[in-house]
Amino acid sequence: MFKSFILSYKLRNTYRVNSIIYSIKQLPLIGKHLPTSLYSSKGLKVLGNIISTLLEIINIFLGKALYVLLMIVAILGMYEQGNSANNFINIFVLLSIAGGLLNTYMFNPTKDKYYAMILMNMNAKKYTLSNYYYSMIKVIIGFLPFTLIFGIYSGLLPITCILMPFFVIFIKTIYNAYILYYFNKNKKIKNENVPTKGIWILIAIFVILAYGLPALNIPITEGVFYILFSISLIFGTIAFWYVSKFKDYKKAYKSLLTQENVYMVQNQTKGDAIQRTTLNQIELDNKTSSNKKGFAYFHDLFVKRHKKILMKSAKKTAIITFLIFLGIIVGVEINSDMRTRTNELLMTMLPWFVFVMYIINRGTVVTQAMFMNCDHSMLTYRFYKTPKVILALFKERLKTLIKINLIPAIVISIGLPLLLYLTGGTNNYLNYVVLFTSIIAMSIFFSIHYLVMYYLLQPYNVNIEMKSSTYAVVQWITYIVCYMFLQMRLPTMYFGIATIVFCVLYCIIALILVYKYAPKTFKLRI
Amino acid sequence: MVYLEGIGAGKTTFFNCLNEDLEIDSGEFYIEENEDKRKIEAEDVGYVLSTPTVPEFLTGRELLKFFIDINKDKIKDLKTIDEYFDFMKIEKEDRDKLLKDYSHGMKNKMQMLVNIIANPNVLLLDEPLTSFDVVVAEEMKQMLKDIKREHITIFSTHIMELALDLCDEIVILNKGLLEKVDMNSIDKEDTKERIILALKEEENV
After folding, report:
1. pLDDT tens series, chain B, 205 aa
2. CB contact under 8 A, A301 and B16
3. Shortest Cα distance, chain A CAs vs residue B191, angstroms
4. Chain A residue closest to B107 (CA)?
5. Between chains, do A374 and B67 touch, taking CB under 8 Å as contact?
6. CATH number of residue B73's parent domain
7. Which residues of B touch A291 (CB under 8 A)?
8. What is the DSSP letter of B199?
9. Using the 8-state DSSP alphabet, how is residue B176 labeled?
10. Which of B165, B132, B137 is nearest to B51 (CA)?
């Protein structure tokens, strides 16, 4: 088994090293002058191996460090009440269960697995088990320092912190054993990248519990963790036994590692896979038609044939938001503690909603669909690139995008002032207006932001290769900025007014920029 | 007019320059009209890429309708949409299908049709016949012969026979340089040999 692990590691390393050399060759200025023979150069291979090993080590710790810091420690600071040790363990345990369902290692159809087991015909069982044990060891080693540091800091017993990573691997193995068992019975394999609806709902429940229980001041305690751990220990041991005895890995992987699955994962950042999935979203029904003319006609058909990705999910979000509000309203009616607390929060937590509005905004998906299913081909036609057409379509699209995003935004913008009123109101009536207007302003802001970025920075060429990273960088910055708002607490009145002013200014500037530059920037990269 | 050249000689780059997708380092393009030389303008050029790119969410008819709506003022002797389909030999039952379900060849036809309707003075075709099956390729060849009567048609190809068959003038693009091939000889074989010779000489330089 050890031998097949070494073999698979070498295989993985070889193409990792090659991709490192490839990325060196992609560097601006230097890259062009490097010859192809680099791939056979010994010195570079050694260098590549060193880099690749370093990456592996960084990978072990950095991912876990970020996870503990961003998903747990950063959130802990937000709870004003409760015992931080309990909150810590609550979030960790429940997120681990959600993570176990989402990230199995074993059933992630990666290129590594495809190459080793399908192309190279390695022994599937030996390959899978050795690599699975390796990744489980990585989980333990990666988590331990951080659960220890932050766990003890939060007030947990050291022994608890040591047991926590083991809980993670038990949970993962239990779920993996279940998948194998399920395959044995039904001859169907679960692909971890395409979770079923049921799995999504379970994950959502655990995530809500993870962050919700501490907010309600009823987190699970260290004692409960020990009970859960004991259970996971028993079932985890059985699961490990089952996994190591399972015979049909080859069959299982043959049905998992189809070209399609592997392709989908590996190329998620690459355009063709995205395009394939977006293309599938064109609704086949070609009976829909439009009475409009020109651009409006064109755009109208686009919207009608993409109802599913454009309208339906926005409506779904709106319904879910509505239900959440309903839940909170019922909650504050029953529980007077919750009422006063919600009332206080409403006066300070508006910054949170920057992130919420960011999350529910459909801008990324919509602009992506616009590019993949429409502009990608249309931009090769000369007439489509004239300033008149570009700007006319921009206007139509902006209207649609704002409309789509306003569907859930309206629910929130009415829900918040309503909640404020129901929880005891406020002395200054302007607060209601500010809450309502600032949410609407944020929604419009994000709509404009995404569309303007798309028109100014469209990064793909005709073969859907990413030619500029500015677009990705801007999206990343947008995320970081919105994420930072999660940490802020500011009086609703001032923050709201500032937000409204900012949004209005930004929108004006952005629109001026589009009208000035889009005719030049909105094109396929070469 | 045709380019024959080795792979990677820069033919797509050259087309991109003509179509103003790329900034040119130096030089200018002219068009001769009634013995007047004038600079090429955006409306003069139509460019058909080698891989068909059509908006897949529209039907063939809708794409044409949209195109005609927008360019109404510019199109001379406008025909009905079905007449255009007839011209391109696109079957009746295919006209109202989503372009997503069109075959490769049909997509290419649609792309070419959109470019022809606009009636540009210069039509650029990148490898127009390489990806068709035999029947469609023959149809297209015939069509290109019709089209070139009224348009300056510039297309690129690696297939020498095709160039000799269709073209009035042949230009070789090799290592970034354009070289005209003497077409005076009636003997095709003779021309062929001269083209190969020219390409080989370039390699030896």
Report:
1. 555 555 666 777 888 888 777 777 777 788 887 778 888 777 778 888 877 788 888 888 888 888 888 888 777 778 888 988 888 888 888 888 888 888 888 888 888 888 888 778 888 888 877 767 787 788 888 888 888 887 888 888 877 777 788 888 888 877 777 777 776 666 677 777 777 777 676 555 4
2. no
3. 35
4. A377
5. no
6. 3.40.50.300
7. none
8. H
9. T
10. B132
| A316-353 pLDDT tens trace | 899 999 998 888 888 888 777 888 888 888 888 888 88
B115 touches chain A (CB under 8 A): yes
Distance CA(A256)–CA(A437), nearest Å, equals 49
SS3 B130: coil
Burial class (CB in 10 A: 0-12, 13-18, 19+), A58: exposed
Helix ranges (H only) for A373-461 are 376-378, 387-422, 430-457
Residues 6+ apart with CB under 8 A from A272: A464
What tokens were used for A476? 């990343």
Q: How far apart are CA A441 and CA B172, in angstroms?
A: 59
| ipTM surpasses 0.85 | no
Burial of A223 (0-12, 13-18, 19+ CB in 10 A): exposed
Are B59 and B90 in contact by the 8 Å Cβ rule? The answer is no
Owning domain of residue B170:
2-204
**Which residues are CB-neighbours of A232 under 8 A, at least 6 positions away?**
A167, A170, A171, A174
Tokens representing A485 are: 């708002």
A281 and A382 Cβ atoms separated by less than 8 Å: no
Rounded to whole angstroms, the Cα distance separating A161 from A146 reads 9
Residues of A in contact with B51 (CB under 8 A): 462
How far is A324 from A416, CA to CA, in rounded Å?
A: 12
3-state secondary structure A201-258: HHHHHHHHHHHHHHHCCCCCCHHHHHHHHHHHHHHHHHHHHHHHHCCCHHHHHHHHCC
pLDDT of residue B205: 46
CA angle B142, B146, B152 (to 5 degrees): 120
Quick one: how far is CA A61 from the chain centroid?
A: 20
Q: Which residue has the tokens 């009422």?
A: A339
Cβ proximity of A390 and A518 under 8 Å: yes
Task: Report the relative pairing of strands B177-181 and B170-174 from DSSP bridges.
Answer: antiparallel
Identify any residues that bridge with B155 across adjacent strands, giving them in sequence order.
B2, B125
